[in-house]
Amino acid sequence: MTITGTNLTGATVTIGGNPATGVMVNATGTQLTAITPPGAAGPADVTVTTPGGSATLVGGFTYVLPVHATSLTATPALTKLFPPHVYFPFLTATLTDQVTGLPVPNQPILFKAGSNVLGIANTDAQGVARVNETLTLTLILINHGYEVSFAGAVTPTATLSPSSAGAPVIEP
């Protein structure tokens, strides 16, 4: 972060009460740069303290959550067409945070075949959402598969971007 002012030589900076690090002031004492300390999303007060006193700008800095891309993968519907038979009774979709590489739990995933909603399921601890396939087999066959989508979300640590995927019908 950069702060411009006067008489900044010897300054320290806090943001939200936490000290900034790497504070460097230019030779004329009119500009300082510093590394922002970690903080919770939202506004934070900025306080500059110099040998001549201190000044606080209320809400002078805003922490924002990083945006993490997500990927959603869908497992193909396994079925036997004649006679109609489902080999695996669940459609599954896995949601992964592309920045951390970790599964994303507790997020709703929409399952659709064409314009028909097959169900909405929350991801589990492994990032996997499951919807029963047996009752929707006809819709899946007519549409040659199904689609899954994640609308995106804001978590305490990041903003997760939306993602989607499609899965075909596979006859083993």
UniProtKB/TrEMBL annotation:
Chain segments annotated as coiled-coil in the UniProt record: none
Organism listed in the record: Streptomyces glebosus
Domain called IPT/TIG: residue spans: 2-63
Entries under InterPro entries matching the protein: Ig-like_fold, Ig_E-set, Invasin/intimin_cell_adhesion, IPT_dom
GO biological process, alphabetically ordered: carbohydrate metabolic process
Protein name listed in UniProt: IPT/TIG domain-containing protein
Xref: SUPFAM superfamilies: E set domains, Invasin/intimin cell-adhesion fragments
Pfam families found in the cross-reference section: TIG
